[in-house]
Amino acid sequence: MVSSGTEELTSTLQKALSINRDACQYGTIVEIGAGQEVARHFFQAGGASNSIAKTMSAYDMQFSDAIYGGEASGRYVSRHRLESMLEKEYGLLLERLEGKRAKNTQYFAYAATIATRNADEGGGQGWIGVRLQLYPGAPPSEIVVHIRLLDREIQPQQQAAGIIGVNLIHAAYNSFRDSDTIIEALKESLGISRIEVDLIHFSGPYFDETENRLANLYLVNSGLTRAVLFDASGQVVIPSDAFYRKDVLAIRGSFRPVTNVNVDMMQCGLQQFTELPEVEEQNVMVLAEITMNTLMSGGKVDSQDFLARVDMLNALGYTVLISDYLRFFRLRAFFRRYTQKQIGIVLGVPNVQDIFNEDYYQGLEGGILEAFGKLFPANTHLYVYPSRNQETREICTAENIELPTNMRQL
Q1: Looking at per-residue confidence, does 297 or 186 come out higher?
Q2: CB of 346 closer than 8 Å to CB of 385
Q3: Minimal CA–CA distance to 148: which of 196, 113, 188?
Q4: C-alpha distances in angstroms, 147 versus 168, 265, 293, 337, 398?
Q5: I need a surface site. Which of 19, 298, 302, 404 has the fewest CB within 10 A?
């Protein structure tokens, strides 16, 4: 259970109150799936008539479809649904109020479509977003966010959804000049134990200079997520969509630069992976994984170096995963969260030697045995790419790799 949250409440209410007291900011809040927690904060703070034109929660599917249109995919907790909500509600604001309120009004629409679930059922997740004018009469700018709700029970998840919604609206208005500051603001009064943000997208005139790939990289750097995923076109996607019912084959590397060996490792790994009777090549998600520590230089990420690596991998047709999963068993667990199909990991000999290094598992209660149990369950396959010993010139493979004596039985 979460604490009583008096400090959280005060901070969140203060943010809502600051918007309520601003004579310029005026908008709509629509929420589906986690109560009306964002709107509640604005009403509880007092003075909501200064900032809120309408709040609504269209839970019934027929009502929702009548307002926002049907969903061909049948999925209502989706980015498409969120965009439909923002488009409709922001349009209604301008249609009904533009020219009728003070000329200094800055209109906004906040929307959320969320599914709350107990932790045993996979936890909650959803999409939230805000479309807003950052000066009177401006064309709108927009921020879209995908969240995972990490509390074990539904009521605290609803509370967290309310807090992050207020954080988003407040930060969008007050920190729009710096995307990193907006991202940091999302976790205020929540921390990273209650909420995960695995996608954020900025658009519109006030965010024209925001590089969304760097913004999403900052999600990992800030601790708001452990991994972000870029598809082969360079667009950020959420793992739950990308990996759904997919067989996943990953190669870890620095890819600085992408070498012929990297490409050969992936091609050879894919060839063996698709020989499994359960795997069909057209159903395989092939991705290159880069850990955060290989992106750091002097404690900071070299932005241009990162973008160059992603561009090169995308040009070769690869999806790119940026993660802070140093240990391979945690990377495998990440994949397993989103797919029950086959998982393959392509490794070089040095990676395998790292896996058998007991120092690698300091702080893990069960040590290397626990790690191996988590790395090698059913439907997980490791493919070891051979290398040449620089001293003996011997080819090293999975059969003759040098390991500590006490590890060979494993």
Answers
A1: 186
A2: yes
A3: 196
A4: 12, 34, 24, 15, 40
A5: 298
Architecture of domain 6-225: Alpha-Beta Complex (3.90)
b/e per residue 124-162 (b: at least 16 CB within 10 A) = bbbbbbbbbbbeeeeebbbbbbbbbbbbeebebbbbbbb
Contact 71, 127 (CB under 8 A): no
Burial of 117 (0-12, 13-18, 19+ CB in 10 A): middle
CATH number for the domain whose boundaries are 240-407: 3.40.50
- The Cα–Cα gap between 203 and 145 comes to 12
The tens digit of pLDDT for each residue in 310-356 reads 999 999 999 999 999 988 888 999 999 999 999 999 998 777 767 76
Written as six digits, the tokens of 341 are 């199909």
Q: Which residues pair with 78 in a beta bridge?
A: none
Could you give the CA distance from residue 325 to residue 344 in angstroms, rounded to a whole number?
A: 16
Decide if 343 contacts 311 (C-beta within 8 A). no
Tokens of 256: 């600085």
Question: How many other CB atoms are found less than 10 A from the CB of residue 167?
Answer: 25
Give the model confidence (pLDDT) of 36-92 as tens digits: 999 999 999 999 999 999 999 998 889 999 999 998 888 899 999 999 999 999 999
330: tokens are: 């945690």
In degrees, rounded to 5, the angle at the alpha carbon of residue 409 between the alpha carbons of residues 407 and 410 is: 70
pLDDT recorded at residue 405 = 59
- Count of CA atoms in the C-beta half-sphere (13 A) of 158: 13
Rg (CA), the chain: 24
* E strand or H helix at 304: helix 303-315
The residues spanned by each domain of the chain are 6-225, 240-407
Q: State how far the Cα of 237 lies from the Cα of 407, in Å rounded to an integer.
A: 39
Which amino acid, 245?
R
Q: What is the distance between the alpha carbons of residues 406 and 244, in angstroms, rounded to a whole number? A: 39
